[in-house]
Amino acid sequence: MKLSWQQITVPALALGLLAMGAPERTHAQAAIKIDGSSTVFPISEAYAEEFQIQKRGKVRVTVGVSGTGGGFKKFCRGETDIANASRPISVEEMEACRKAGIKYMEVPVAFDALTVVVNPANTWAKTMTVAELKKMWEPGAQGRITTWNQVNPKFPKQKLMLFGPGADSGTFDYFTEAVNGKAKASRGDYTASEDDNTLVQGVENNKNAIGYFGYAYYAAHKDKMTAVAIDNGKGKGAVGPSLENVTNGTYNPLSRPLFVYVRDTAARRPEVREFVQFMMNNGDLVSEVGYLPLPKSAYSLAWKHFQDGKLGTVFGGHAQVGITIEKLQALEGKL
Amino acid sequence: MSAVMTIEELRAGLAWRKNLDKVFVVVGLLILMSCLGLLALLFLDLVRDGAARFGWDFLTQFPSRKAERAGILSAWVGTSMIMLVTALVALPIGVAAAIYLEEYAPKNWITGVIEINVTNLAGVPSIVYGLLALGLFVYQFGLGQSVLAAGLTLALLILPIIIVGTREALRAVPKAIREAAYGLGATRWEVTKDHVLPYSTGGILTGLILGLSRAIGETAPIITIGALSFIAFLPGSPVTGEFPFVNFEWLKSEFTAMPIQIFNWVSRPDQAFQQNAAAAAAILLGMTLAMNAVAIWIRYRFRKKINW
Q1: Contacts of residue A74 in chain B, CB cutoff 8 Å?
Q2: Exposed / middle / buried, residue A128 (Cβ in 10 Å: 0-12, 13-18, 19+)
Q3: Quick one: pLDDT band at residue A87, thresholds 50, 70, 90?
Q4: If you measure CA to CA, which chain A residue comes closest to B64?
Q5: Which residues from chain B sit within 8 angstroms of residue A60, using beta carbons?
Q6: Tell me, what CATH number does B116's domain have?
Q7: Based on the domain organization, do B270 and B295 belong to the same domain?
Q8: Which of B65, B226, B301 sits opposite A45 (nearest CB)?
Q9: Does one domain contain both B15 and B94?
């Protein structure tokens, strides 16, 4: 075969031109577009996978990972049907959606328990108070609190090694809000990584380490680290992150609900409705991927709200720390 | 001590210099081997970690929440399609630009500025191309989060590499060839088309290989333009059974790509996914090597035809 330049370039150019002029054919297939939080991704992936199997490929579900903020950007431009969020929609995002005329339903899908972990060789900090965590992580601790005994005189005089997620993470936002009282207010002199597996390794390898991340990462490494039981000072004592403690609201303030936001116009499409119903009926898939499902009653109430077309967020643009799912669901929605 | 060296001194000096020569060969070989060794080590490490996952199933299954059920079908198909678009777009444009700059452009300051900028473009971080493409291709041209948008983005990214590579190749064609052709009355285009280009094909393809090898591993720009992480269907086939036998639906399709799939698996809590990530990384490396092998083979075929 003699390949000449014409033989290569002419078809290439022709292909390019054809591609530009190719008529847009409408997709005959029903499709659901989901984008957003990387924390919620495993949950959506599990649902999308099973839903597609159940529908025998008649519905196509795609899931992207742009982060909670990136997901809302696309959602409020009307590019996606569902936004995954590891925190409630913010005031700015509500405003962006309002401007674009996008209305939405807020559907809680699971709990995540932010888990504070220490090395198994750590014998002193099996339980900690929220006040101690604050002492350790607040912005004022930067450069000042460097040994364990500064946090609590009963702790040994050992170097304090802190591991936590980076500032772009929703986990960081929620932890700082719950512990330090203000989202994103944190000391900066700790080992930060956007990859939670790096944090896991840090805690695994350092006797004096302490770190925090989502429950799923703790669940996958249970044998190599200890979850610190948290005492919020409200008289219930120290409580560890277990399914029971999270669902009954005692693992407080470090448990948070995870959401999907569904555009109302998309919710009128039968495949989207069915998908939401599928999510609400199959909470066990949530535990399969390492998260904590909501109580059955919460799922049925969420499904009822969805059917009733209850619009808006119950949060008013801010994460509410330490409220049970029942109380949250009773609140009025706000667009 | 006399100014004239004795024959013994000369011989000793010569022997020393020859030894130095040998030492250089050994050192060079060692450095080369350590580079290749590092690549081999990396590859073997990936293969070992991912050994349990290699198999037909891994290539033919869609991603899944269960590590043992998850495969890279949508990822490798996506990557292949993007590479096809990238190569088809970047090669003609890059080669044309290089021909203009090398054979036609007058040597003045404008050409100088263009040349400097082409070289500088090669050093622009890939995320910048991603942001440009997001604004231009995805929104302005309305291409959406499609294979076409991704292919065009990566084509932009490797354009400087191809232009620089092609210019080197064109420059390597002896001047005598051009002058002989001109002497026989050939026009500039005839000289370029019939002589310069065929003789420099090898070098041009090398530039293309270098470019595509860079593009295949790029994550940042395609994440920026909106590659998906979970997609369990394939773009439409480019070849169909009915007239006109080709289908361009796939260009508009949503996609995911190998680096994104790998990144996604690496950051999963479940450690079983680390094996998948290693296996997928080994396959990506394999795809790169295979791509290079094909290009080397084409280059060899072109070279065989040239008789100076």
Answers
A1: 226
A2: buried
A3: confident
A4: A49
A5: 232-233
A6: 1.10.3720.10
A7: yes
A8: B65
A9: no
